[in-house]
Amino acid sequence: MRGTIKKNTKIDKKTGKETYTYEYLVYVGIDEKTGKRIYKRKRGFTKKTDCEDALRTLVNSVKNGSYLIDTEKLDVKTYLDYWLENYVKKNCAPSTIRRYKIYVSDMICKYIGTIQLNKVTIASIEKLYNDLHDIDSYNPRTINAMGSTLHGAFRHAIKWKFINSNPCDNADKLKLQKKQVNFWEAEKIPQYLKKLENTCIYNFVFLAVYTGLRYGELKALKWSDIDFTSGTLTVKRSMYFDDDSKETKVKSPKTEQGYRTIVLLPVVLDFLKKLKTSQKIIDINNFILINEETKNKYSISMSTKLKKTLEKLDIPVIRFHDLRHSYASMLLYYGVNIKTISSMLGHSDISTTMNVYSHVDLELQKREMEKLALKIK
User: Fold this and answer.
1) Does any domain span residue 175?
2) In angstroms, rounded to a whole number, what is the distance separating the alpha carbons of residues 348 and 357?
3) Nearest alpha-carbon partner for 193 in 267, 139, 140
4) 356/281 same-domain check
């Protein structure tokens, strides 16, 4: 890679005097978007030695990998659209793709979309966080989640040689208040389930609160995943609604820990045996929970049904995902250690479990101490 230098002659029309300028042309790489060869040209050098020095510097930067291909015209929005198309769509789950698109269109590009990618600074990022909070009233947790996504996008920009450093690295995120986890008290779960027994959501709620499975994992649960001999359930897949195709689809767990086998309570085994015996229609795909929920858009109808049913029956209203929290808090209540709980929930890191449920443990301690205080008055 040597490049070429060209001498240009210009004649002044009035004086007839000749002046000379120099320019260079050099191949610098392949355009990631089009696959075409890219050449860099620079004109206007009045001295040949200056042109040679600039060309030499450029050639060396291309050779050592520090040259960034044509970032002068690349703004944040254009880059993020490229990242969504060429990385996110190929590597992320549909729900993640939807979330990232919202972050990009509704949050990031609203404030920094027109800034040149290589001009984004730590101050730009911190101002983005503050504007989203102060002007748009986004929750700090949502803003920080978006920030983590943007950090990952810039990390790919470095890999693709669009920028040299990540402006998110040292940007301060917003301070968070400890997130409140809602759950049903362990000793009250049986009475709540009794009230729900004849409702259309009973099977889902029963299994969710006694297995800790996510809604999508429950929908994708098959009879072949249940081992009645060993009394275990194995999570192998999850069901979701694909916005693009408008169809319900099945996917594998995101992490290795997502594939998990849990030991079932005797009450759950009895429930499943009765359910299998009572089912008159056998699903062609062997799914356990034969219900209109498996045909409709992911989670929306279940969320609505759950809320309305709980309100009608005067049961504390929680989200469907809070049934998973109720399962975890029940395990904590009865003394199961946090590492086992983490494994049963399919968390990739025990710290995730500890962060989410540490204050649940304190809340359980507080409730027990209140009971004890009444006894020793």
Assistant:
1) no
2) 15
3) 267
4) yes
Give the residue-averaged pLDDT of 353-374. 72
Question: 34 and 87: one domain?
Answer: no
pLDDT tens, 106-124?
999 999 999 999 999 999 9
- Per DSSP, 164 falls in state S
Tell me phi and psi for residue 316, to 5 degrees. -50, 125
Asked if the structure places residue 181 within a domain, the reply is no
User: What is the Cα–Cα distance from 302 to 207, expressed in whole angstroms?
Assistant: 14
* 45 CB-side CA count, 13 A: 19
- Decide the pairing of beta strands 37-45 and 18-30: antiparallel
Local structure of 236: helix, strand or coil: coil
Residue 297, token pair as written in the block: 């858009």
In degrees rounded to 5, what are phi and psi of residue 16? 75, 5
Distance CA 374, CA 341 (A): 31
The residue behind tokens 């429950």 is: 218
Q: How far is CA 373 from CA 182, 332, 367, 377, in A?
A: 24, 21, 10, 6
Closest CA to 67 of 3, 147, 152: 3
Its domain, for residue 24, covers 4-63
Is residue 152 located within the same domain as residue 27? Answer: no
N residues, the chain: 377
Q: How far apart are CA 236 and CA 225, in angstroms?
A: 8
* 11, 116: one domain: no
| SS3 state at 325 | helix
The one-letter amino acid code at 83 reads W
Would you give the end-to-end CA distance of the chain in angstroms?
A: 88
* pLDDT tens-digit map of 222-263: 999 999 999 999 999 988 777 667 778 888 887 788 899 999
- The pTM for the full model equals 0.63
Asked whether residue 341 is assigned to any structural domain, the reply reads yes
